[in-house]
Amino acid sequence: MVDLEFHSGLLAGAGLLGLVAGQLLTYVAHQLPISLEQQWQREAREVLGLGREVTCPLKHCLHDTSRSRGWVVQIGCAALSMVVIWQLGTTLQALFALLLTWWLITLSLIDSEHHLLPDVLVNPGLWFGLILNSFGVFTTLPEALWGGVIGYMSLWSVFHLVKLCTGKESLGAGDFKLLALIGAWGGWNILPLTVVLALLSALLANVQYLLIPKSSRPAVVPFGPHLSIAGWVSLILQPNLL
User: Fold this and answer.
1) DSSP element (H, E) containing 192
2) pTM metric for this prediction
3) DSSP code of 219?
4) Mean pLDDT across the stretch 107-116?
5) Which of 41, 45, 64, 97 has the fewest CB atoms lying closer than 10 Å?
6) Phi, psi at residue 213, to the nearest 5°?
7) pLDDT interval class at 176 (50, 70, 90)
């Protein structure tokens, strides 16, 4: 009975922490694109000799969007945080898995809104995964290293093959780096399942868009959220963590 109460309290605490984290990462996903656009404008104006004064049209259009989706993100973040604790318990893996969960949610929010996976988030995430696995938190360092290499090179190769055959750019460089990040956290062995699940998720999303009028369909469907979901499932729900 005591054990059941402890686990129930632990899950409730994870849910509450997830709500707080969801509010924070919603703010980050709202503000970071604004800051990046302002930085790009400043750099462009300096190159053109126009001074440093900038305007940011994103600020107003993002405000209502972020407010309306805030509660959805917070509840989703709380639910995923509870799944992490339920799956991994009170372990060091669970602590860092929570961090990865929130990291991937933030990237997914930004990519779904702006078709952008900022290096300022992706690159530190990749290196942090390698550092963690140098201590064997989720996998061994060699598997993490090759996970990063294979993750990046696999999508990079697909991108250039598709471009060579069709002349079209099917993926962005951020997608290469995101799969490298996932491989650096979970090792190369989770990459096949990650890619399969991401492709299935993207396929379902595209089928959904076929059911709505063509004028209402998005011009581009970002792949980052599908990679994030698939990578999270592959890492968190795998039964053979170290």
Assistant:
1) helix 191-210
2) 0.86
3) S
4) 92
5) 64
6) -55, 145
7) very high
